[in-house]
Write a structure and sequence with these properties.
269 residues; 10 helices; two-stranded antiparallel sheet; two-stranded antiparallel ribbon; globular; mainly alpha
Length: 269
């Protein structure tokens, strides 16, 4: 089963890299045909990668618990956020991302886990040189949850100006804001949401030991980092966002990615 899941994870990530990165890089030379192309389908694709890899690294029970906590908490925060404007600022979703549950597209809770899991791996590597695990006293878990939330929120510095911008308009900020017309409150809300997801899961993980499917070798451990990096490149190469993101993304997402990669290369043979 481990081998099958690993093959599935590699195939899912490879398709995403092809559609989200390689096609755009090759465009000046050759027009490669899309396999999925649509942002909604690519989101589901990378979410399935995260869920599959989490199953290998954490075991079925922990991966499904992590996914369920992420989806449920994210939906609650988003639903309250759209209805009241109290969490992220005043905004609403258009029909670009498909059908909704309440005020929130079904795709959104899936999209949270898509990056919540790779960000969890990156934070663990930075803090403990480990891919998985939540060790230490409760205060340590709070710190790990804050760090994980910051790594995750770095992605929104890149993706929000694209998806809320005029080229896509997947959601609309009603009052605008200083960061590409996005309110600063949005990023406070992101850290709060992700902190709650990570703390809930890390408390569970600390109480109930994970059961990974075998050893996490370097080739397996590096896959979530590749997913995080591929998402950054896909967002930049896909177009539709402010040109300044070319400078912002390598620092916002690149620095934690480089730090985690360094820890991975040192700790895993």
């Amino acid at each position: 089963m481990r081998r099958i899941l690993l093959v599935v994870a590699v195939v899912l990530l490879s398709i995403f890299v092809y559609d989200g990165v390689l096609r755009h890089v090759a465009t000046p030379i050759i027009q490669l045909p899309p396999l999925f192309g649509d942002v909604n389908r690519l989101t589901v694709l990378l979410m399935l990668f995260s869920l599959t890899h989490a199953t290998i690294a954490l075991g079925w029970r922990h991966s499904l618990t992590f996914f369920a906590l992420s989806a449920a908490i994210a939906w609650v925060f988003e639903q309250i956020g759209v209805e009241t404007g109290a969490i992220y600022g005043r905004y609403y979703y258009t029909d670009v991302l498909g059908p909704k549950l309440g005020h929130v597209p079904f795709l959104i809770p899936l999209a949270w886990f898509m990056m919540i899991y790779p960000s969890y791996v990156i934070a663990n590597l930075i803090a403990d040189s480990r891919v998985t695990g939540s060790r230490g006293r409760p205060g340590r878990l709070v710190w790990l949850s804050v760090l994980s939330g910051m790594v995750m929120t770095a992605w929104d510095l890149v993706i929000d100006p694209i998806l809320s911008g005029p080229a896509v308009r997947a959601w609309v900020w009603q009052d605008g804001g200083p960061y590409f017309d996005i309110p600063i409150q949005n990023y406070v809300g992101w850290i709060a949401t992700t902190f709650c997801v990570y703390l809930a899961y890390r408390l569970f993980e600390r109480r109930v030991a994970a059961r990974p499917m075998g050893a996490l070798t370097r080739p397996i451990a590096v896959l979530p980092l590749m997913a995080y990096g591929a998402m950054m490149l896909s967002n930049l190469l896909g177009g539709g966002g402010p040109a300044a993101l070319i400078v912002i993304a390598p620092f916002a997402m690149g620095l934690p990615l480089v730090a985690a990669t360094d820890r991975l290369l040192r700790a895993y043979q």
